[in-house]
Amino acid sequence: MSQHSPERIDVHLTQIRLEADDVASYEFRPVAGGPALPVFEAGAHIDLYLPENRVRSYSLVNDPQERHRYVVAVQREAAGRGGSAWMHRVPRVGERFTISAPKNDFPLCESARESLFICGGIGITPVVAMIRRLERIGASWRLHYAVRECSRAAYADDLAQLDNADSRVEMYFQNEDRRPDVRGIVDRAPAGTHLYCCGPRGMVDDFIAACAGRPQDEVHFERFAAANDAASEGGFEVVLHRDGRRIAVAPGKTILDTLLDHGVDVQYACSSGVCGTCRVGVIDGVPDHRDDFLSADEKAGNGAIMVCCSGSLSPTLVLDL
């Protein structure tokens, strides 16, 4: 592998910092003598390649003006597949990592009359970069930021240091019974405001419903997890087209669980059907699509499946593996 390519970039981990309870940030810089990192836009993320063929996607939180470093934040997830726990336990400053070039599925509209953000928990991470960019260009913005308690509010101190933060940042702490009125916030937003939401499923669902009557090119959201529960009913077989193996998917297991249990080499990241990393081609059969990555047309065509969360409506599903 080359040191620096359009797809994969070798970097050094240069700093680890605790940002809040169970949230740590990681700064990556180019290896010595390497070129500057690719330019990124606010809202972008990178894929981080971890051991055991794991890939995890993390939003970039630093100022998009910077090309000498990338910074991501990782929240420890006790119920996850081990990526966040590994990141909190194993990496040490000075170690070498491989990352992808930045990708952006959650872009910022810099020409908006005003930008209004509604965030929950670790959903603040892409918005921090957006706010840094809006501050740099002198654009108007407001933030509604909900967390379980003050100690879990990553980047709250950084935001509090911005000019007029008291009038532009509103915090909500669940342990104080304060939750954002998403519909009320959306309804009060002036015409021409671009609205953004990143957070847990319930918050994003409420946001989408509240924005139904607004121009959809002014509505932006990013999910942590698909809107539907993962298909874990089992009761069907997957056939690996390239080697002919037939593998039964048992009740309580996803296709991804089953493939990993049988040593099948398949990449995955979010495990929630939102990032697209685990996309696999479908040769035959009818998938039960549960993801939020494929378009409606792609789902209707049944040519691909997100194996982390989707299942099968047919007794057999032939995968391009």
From TrEMBL:
<dbReference type="InterPro" id="IPR012675">
    <property type="entry name" value="Beta-grasp_dom_sf"/>
</dbReference>
<dbReference type="Pfam" id="PF00111">
    <property type="entry name" value="Fer2"/>
</dbReference>
<dbReference type="InterPro" id="IPR001433">
    <property type="entry name" value="OxRdtase_FAD/NAD-bd"/>
</dbReference>
<dbReference type="Pfam" id="PF00175">
    <property type="entry name" value="NAD_binding_1"/>
</dbReference>
<keyword id="KW-0560">Oxidoreductase</keyword>
<keyword id="KW-0285">Flavoprotein</keyword>
<dbReference type="InterPro" id="IPR050415">
    <property type="entry name" value="MRET"/>
</dbReference>
<dbReference type="InterPro" id="IPR017938">
    <property type="entry name" value="Riboflavin_synthase-like_b-brl"/>
</dbReference>
<dbReference type="InterPro" id="IPR001041">
    <property type="entry name" value="2Fe-2S_ferredoxin-type"/>
</dbReference>
<dbReference type="InterPro" id="IPR017927">
    <property type="entry name" value="FAD-bd_FR_type"/>
</dbReference>
<dbReference type="InterPro" id="IPR006058">
    <property type="entry name" value="2Fe2S_fd_BS"/>
</dbReference>
<dbReference type="GO" id="GO:0046872">
    <property type="term" value="F:metal ion binding"/>
</dbReference>
<keyword id="KW-0001">2Fe-2S</keyword>
<dbReference type="InterPro" id="IPR036010">
    <property type="entry name" value="2Fe-2S_ferredoxin-like_sf"/>
</dbReference>
<protein>
    <submittedName>
        <fullName>Aromatic acid dioxygenase beta subunit</fullName>
    </submittedName>
</protein>
<keyword id="KW-0408">Iron</keyword>
<keyword id="KW-0223">Dioxygenase</keyword>
<keyword id="KW-0411">Iron-sulfur</keyword>
<keyword id="KW-0479">Metal-binding</keyword>
<feature type="domain" description="2Fe-2S ferredoxin-type">
    <location>
        <begin position="236"/>
        <end position="321"/>
    </location>
</feature>
<dbReference type="InterPro" id="IPR039261">
    <property type="entry name" value="FNR_nucleotide-bd"/>
</dbReference>
<feature type="domain" description="FAD-binding FR-type">
    <location>
        <begin position="6"/>
        <end position="109"/>
    </location>
</feature>
<dbReference type="GO" id="GO:0051537">
    <property type="term" value="F:2 iron, 2 sulfur cluster binding"/>
</dbReference>
<dbReference type="GO" id="GO:0051213">
    <property type="term" value="F:dioxygenase activity"/>
</dbReference>
